[in-house]
Amino acid sequence: MKKSAASISFLLLFSAAACTATPVAAQRSDEIIAKARACLGDDAALSAVHSLHFLGVLETQKETPAGLVPQKASIEIVFQKPCQQCIVVTGAESIETTGLDEYAAWQREQSQADPARWNISVLGPEMIEWLRATTWENLFFFKGIEQQGGTAEVVGRATIDGHAAVKVAFAHGAGIVFYRYFDPATGKLLLSETKDRTIKEEGEIVVNGLRFPQKEVQTIKALDANGKPVERKIIVTFDKITLNEAFPESHFEMPMLPSTQPSSVVNVPGSQPAAAPAAEPAAVK
Question: Do the beta carbons of residue 225 and residue 219 sit within 8 Å?
Fold first, then answer.
């Protein structure tokens, strides 16, 4: 994604609502996962989720000679089982789309000023693995990673904003790990962490009895134009969340490139998600 202006890397992790606290001793991962799912809603209802459709606003920062300038864009995110996703970020200058269709992934950037001008990047194996992992993380609500060849293990304890937390590592293939910090008594998700960012969730939207965050705040570790370490924020505020719509295969397939348009296809080798999405994006969760 860092090979293109369309750099989508959102994680879209789900928050848990407040639950009745009960004393707990040392816990296994399956015990804390059961609590975390109970905070989100009914276990059977979570397992029955086939697709998620988010609409909202993305707030980012663009680096300019005068400093960081705030930017806003609309964002639409779709996840669908077994392993499909599509994220569309519509900004003032461009429309940036990232798609995953099982084991194929692509990014497209289209000019707002001249819609006939657009580029497509075919993403490499490492980015495909990353997108597959984020799709699982959004659709399966912490449960069953072993069936995908991964593991979920308690790796330690921590204190998050004054609250005791159990740290659980959700390890996918290719060295991709999502760390979740849960309240050990309630299962509430307090913080999520990946290699280059932390994610906190605020507020709540209840859809069909299931709880989702109303806002996601990502703090990203990056380098500025001079190579100095900086922290940047990405904020996604959701206006609407819809469950279990049926999206056609064409929603996730790479668009065909018309030979009559001044567009191009670029093969992008595997890479980690960009530290900060381009416009930003057209990138996550």
Answer: no
CATH number reported for the structural domain that contains residue 232 in this entry: 2.50.20
Assess if residue 223 is contained within a domain. yes
Where in the sequence is the domain holding 242, given as residue range(s)?
Answer: 29-267
Is there a contact between 250 and 68 (Cβ–Cβ < 8 Å)?
no
Q: What is the pLDDT of residues 181-211, one digit of tens each?
A: 999 999 999 999 998 899 999 999 999 999 9
Buried b (16+ CB within 10 A) or exposed e, 110-142: beeeeeeebbbbebeebbbbbbbbbbbbbbbbb
Let me know if residue 93 belongs to a domain: yes
In DSSP terms, which residues pair with 77 in a beta bridge? 54, 87
3 state SS of 60: strand
Residue 284 lies in a domain: no
What is the pTM (predicted TM-score) of this model? 0.82
Instruction: Round the CA-based radius of gyration of the chain to a whole number and report it.
Output: 19
Q: Is residue 169 part of a domain?
A: yes
